[in-house]
Amino acid sequence: MKTVLFVGAGRHQRRAIQRAKELGLRVAAVDRNPDAPGLGEADVRRVVDYADVEAVLKALDGLEVDGVLTVSADSAVPAVAAIAERLGLPGIGVETAHLMTHKVAMRRRLADAGVPQPRFAALRRLSERHRALDEVGVPAVLKPADSGGQRGIFRIESVDDIELHLHEALAVSPTNEAILEQFVDGTEMNGIVVARGGEQLPLTLSDRLRPPGVGFGVGWIHLYPATVYGHQLEESEHVATYAVRTLGLRNGIAFPQLIASPDGTVSVVECAARIPGGQMADLVRHAVGVDLVEVQIRFALGEEVPDELVVPRFRQPLAIRFLTAEPGPLPTGRVVGVGSLEKVLAFPGVVQADTYLQVGEVIRPVRLDGDRRGYVIATAPTNLEALERAEAAARLVDVEVE
Ligand SMILES: Nc1ncnc2c1ncn2[C@@H]1O[C@H](COP(=O)(O)OP(=O)(O)O)[C@@H](O)[C@H]1O
Ligand SMILES: [Mg+2]
Questions:
Q1: Containing H/E element for 200?
Q2: Do 168 and 180 meet the contact criterion of CB atoms below 8 Å apart?
Q3: Cβ of 270 below 6 Å from ligand 1
Q4: Closest approach atom of ligand 1 to CA 149
Q5: CB within 8 A of 401, min separation 6: which ones?
Q6: Does residue 39 contact residue 112 with C-beta atoms inside 8 Å?
Q7: d(CA 54, CA 37)
Q8: Nearest atom (ligand 1) to Cα of 140
């Protein structure tokens, strides 16, 4: 029996850990939080901060591991690569892991290869704000160089805005670095590309719709297939695969994020080296019939990934509607009761739905990924009909607040 090590054992990892066990594997998992939901599912568990690779290796104490992986956690990607190298296991390499998690390093590499992207400038201290803004212009986006989940991201209209927010952006960067980028207008898209033996197989391209206001970075609706068409669709697929190749991913799952602008151009927002969170793995499963977790486990074990596991089996239009406060379907306030999802799940076209709401928590206006408190996935003959179904079903979610 082979053993896989999961680095990080949060909510997203839990499902993947269950899947690994279904596939007949023994699972070891590490997380610094002793209550991480995935730890309870693992056969071997260690409470340790994965940011400290030496501590993880020590905690494993000679345990025989055949593969190492993570799901959804960007911060775990460099740790997984480092552990794989130390244990002589298959991995993406520490250099590629760095290029695919550190936004400044990524932008520099993409620029060298001529990949279309916004103007950018790196900054570490306030005194650099004028230089950075001169290089980038307004409107701009300020973000930590290496964080995720929309933490520390701000829209910037003036040098005063940088003064106001740089501290927070730097505070969430483990390397204390931020990046200022030209704000790109347009339709945002998520791509899923599987790299296998140095070749890129594009699986899905879907629209990622965002709410107006401070939550401008939060994906609150996914639509498959994406709504771009013609030349811009071809360009999007080309840019997605070219970015993955440029960053050096030879075997693994890549998550390129793009913006298609009204002038017909396509720009790269970022390109991660992992299975995305936010139900994107569910999107891929329902849309094209590919199980990304199984694919990732095979890469981690160095096993062959046959066409049957990665080539789209069908193309099913769908929509994912996240449950958020206004203008989403949830009320704001302290949760006093969450009803059953029976009616939601019975709605025509609905294939999956869940809430992560707990009685006593406060539902706030949308600002971060974490303000998404559940989702509804619906299929239909077209993506727009699927969205209508998902919206209608989401209105049946029964949440009481005070
Ligand atoms: N340069 C940009 N122009 C327009 N929107 C952006 C830009 N950079 C980021 N965003 C928005 O913010 C979101 C989060 O930014 P991203 O760089 O992907 O950081 P994270 O690592 O938190 O996912 C993006 O998905 C996009 O919606
Ligand atoms: Mg992102």
A1: strand 199-209
A2: no
A3: yes
A4: 22
A5: 331, 332, 333, 334, 335, 336, 363
A6: no
A7: 24
A8: 1
Structure tokens at 96: 């590629």
Enter the pTM of the model: 0.96
Whether ligand 1 lies within 6 angstroms of the CB of 256 is answered as no
- Among all bound ligands, the one having the nearest atom to the CA of 119 is 1
Kind and range of the H or E run holding 285: helix 280-288
Q: Name the H helices within 220-265.
A: 230-246
Smallest CA-to-CA distance from 100 within 297, 237, 248, 293 is with 248
Specify whether the CB–CB gap between 142 and 185 falls below 8 A: no
Structure tokens at 13: 């990892």
> What is the distance, to the nearest Å, from the Cα of residue 347 to the centroid of all Cα atoms in its chain?
28
**pLDDT tens across the length of the chain (402 residues):** 999 999 999 988 999 999 999 999 999 999 999 999 999 999 999 999 999 999 999 999 989 999 999 998 999 999 999 999 999 999 999 999 999 999 999 999 999 999 999 999 999 999 999 999 999 999 999 999 999 888 999 999 999 999 999 999 999 999 999 999 999 999 999 999 999 999 999 999 999 999 888 888 889 999 999 999 999 999 999 999 999 999 999 999 999 999 999 999 999 999 999 999 889 999 999 999 999 999 999 999 999 999 999 999 999 999 999 999 987 899 999 999 999 999 999 999 999 999 999 999 999 998 888 899 999 999 999 999 999 999 999 999 999 999
- Here the tokens at position 295 are 């694919």
Say how many C-beta atoms besides its own lie within 10 A of residue 377's C-beta.
25
User: Are 354 and 304 within 8 A, CB to CB?
Assistant: no
234 CA distance to ligand 1 centroid (A)?
22
